[in-house]
Amino acid sequence: xxxxxxxxxxxxxxxxxxxxxxxxxxxxxxxxxxxxxxxxxxxxxxxxxxxxxxxxxxxxxxxxxxxxxxxxxxxxxxxxxxxxxxxxxxxxxxxxxxxxxxxxxxxxxxxxxxxxxxxxxxxxxxxxxxxxxxxxxxxxxxxxxxxxxxxxxxxxxxxxxxxxxxxxxxxxxxxxxxxxxxxxxxxxxxxxxxxxxxxxxxxxxxxxxxxxxxxxxxxxxxxxxxxxxxxxxxxxxxxxxxxxxxxxxxxxxxxxxxxxxxxxxxxxxxxxxxxxxxxxxxxxxxxxxxxxxxxxxxxxxxxxxxxxxxxxxxxxxxxxxxxxxxxxxxxxxxxxxxxxxxxxxxxxxxxxxxxxxxxxxxxxxxxxxxxxxxxxxxxxxxxxxxxxxxxxxxxxxxxxxxxxxxxxxxxxxxxxxxxxxxxxxxxxxxxxxxxxxxxxxxxxxxxxxxxxxxxxxxxxxxxxxxxxxxxxxxxxxxxxxxxxxxxxxxxxxxxxxxxxxxxxxxxxxxxxxxxxxxxxxxxxxxxxxxxxxxxxxxxxxxxxxxxxxxxxxxxxxxxxxxxxxxxxxxxxxxxxxxxxxxxxxxxxxxxxxxxxxxxxxxxxxxxxxxxxxxx
Length: 615
Hints:
Strand order of the largest sheet: 3-2-4-1-10-9-11-15
Mean pLDDT: 93
CATH architecture of the largest domain: 4-Layer Sandwich
Number of domains: 3
CATH topology of the largest domain: Glutamine Phosphoribosylpyrophosphate, subunit 1, domain 1
Helix content: 25-40%
Number of helices: 21
Strand content: 15-25%
Shape: globular
Structural class: alpha/beta
Low-confidence stretches: none
C-alpha cells in the first residue's frame, strides 16, 4: 500500500521521481522520500513525514543531480509515520538504498540474526531489515553481485514485497523484485522506468513488463533487462503495450479526482457495456462466460469474494444472479473467506472482484479456490493486474484509472459488468425468457443517459450537504437491491468526511439503530418505487415519528414519500436490479460535498490507501 517509482537512463532522475510520486500519492501519503545516485558517486538521500510537498519543502530547493534514482510514498504498517521510518532505507554502510511495498512477516527473526552479526537498526520498519539482509549476503560472498544477493535474500523472506534497490557501486543498474505487490517496468529508448502502477510511466513510454510473483529483475544501461525467479530460473520478459491515455490521470479542470470520477460515470458505464450489450443482435457477449458456457450452465453455486466497496458490488450481484439465473450465491469478505476452511470445490465458480486487481486478501482467496478445484472468474479494472493474470477467466470493467481513494466509477462499472454477467448466465441456464431478457437489455442500455441526468442535480445535492455537514452521525437505509447501496453510501461518507455513518437494511432499523434516532440524526434512505416501496414508506414513518430528519432518494414523480421526507432527490425509473446504478450517485455527490465543506482531503483521506496490497 505504498507507491514505488524509479528511473535509470540519461535524464535527470529527480524531476521524474517527484512527478511520479505525486501521481502515486493516492497509494500512500504518510511520508515520502527519494534517493538519487549522483554523477560523483554519492548517494543523495532525502525523506520526510507527510506528503510529497512536505518532502520538497524539507529539501529547501536542493535538487539532487543524477540519472539513477528511486522514490517512495508510504502508507505505514510497521512503525508510525515519521522521518526515520520513511523510505528509502539504507544499508549499514550506506552503499545500498531500498524502497519496499508490502510486509516482511518474518522480519523480527531476521532482525535478531542480523543484530547478532553486528547490524544496527534505526527505524521500526521491516524494510530496513531487508536492506541489511541484502548487505549481509553481498558482503559474505565475493562471488555474488547485487542481483544475486537480492535473489538469495528473498529466499529467506516470508511475506509480500515489491522492491527497488540501488547500489552506489553499480551506477548503471537497478534491481527490482515482487511478490504479491505490483511492480511494472517501463522500457524506453535507452532508459527504464519503474512504478507500482502505470500512471507515472505512461507519459514516457507505452511499453511495459509486469513482474510476476517471485521474480527478480535487473535493468542495466549496458545489458538491458534480465529476469529470473528467486529459485534462479530464467524468465523471458513479455512486453505489453499500455492502453491508458495521459488525460485519464489528470484532473481535467475538476477540483478533485473524486469529483471528476463521479462525473465520468455516464461514460465509464457506457464503455463497460460497449461491445458486450448488443441490442441490435438481441445478445450479450461476455468472452469469459462464452468460452466456458457448460461450466456456467452446470454450476451448482457461485461464491463472490471481495473487500470494501467491491464487496458491496458483490452483495448487489447476489440479488442479480439469484433473480436472473436462479443459482445460489454466497458473498464473502475475502479477508474472512481465506482464513476459514470453506466448503468449495469442482463445480463451484468463485467470482473475485477488485478495482486494482491487486487486493491481497482477494488474491489469497483466489489461490485457495484454485487449489480446491473451483473455477475463478475475475472482475477488475487494471489491465495486467495480478487478479487478471491468476483468474481462469474474467472481465475488465474498462472504467479507466481511478485516482481518488474513495471508489466511485469503479463501483458502478463493477455493477454494470455483474449485471451483464447475471443476464448472460440467466439466458444460458434458461432462467430468463426472451421477453424479459430483451427488456433487461433495453433497460440496462439506458442507464448511462439516466446517470448523466443525475449530474444536473449536483447544485441541489450540495445544498443538502450544507444543511447536514455538521451532523455527528448518519444512518443509511435501503431494502432489497438498495440495501448494499445504503452500506456503500455510509462507507463513502465516513471514509472522506470522517462522519460516523452506518448502513442498515431498513427493516432492521427497529432492531437496534432506531434507539439512535432523534432530531440531530439524518437518515438517508433509498425509497424508489420497487417491490419494497410500501415497506420503506413504513420505515420512513417510523423515523419521522421519532423526530429524525429524512433525506430520501425517490423515483421521479413520487409524491407520497416527498410529502413525508425533509429532502428528496429524484432518480429515473429503472428495473429494480439497475436502480443501484442510479441511487448510489446522489450518495457519492453528497459525501463529496460534505467532505469539501468540512475541508477534508477528499482524494487522500487520512489512514487510507487506494490499493490494499497487504493484509
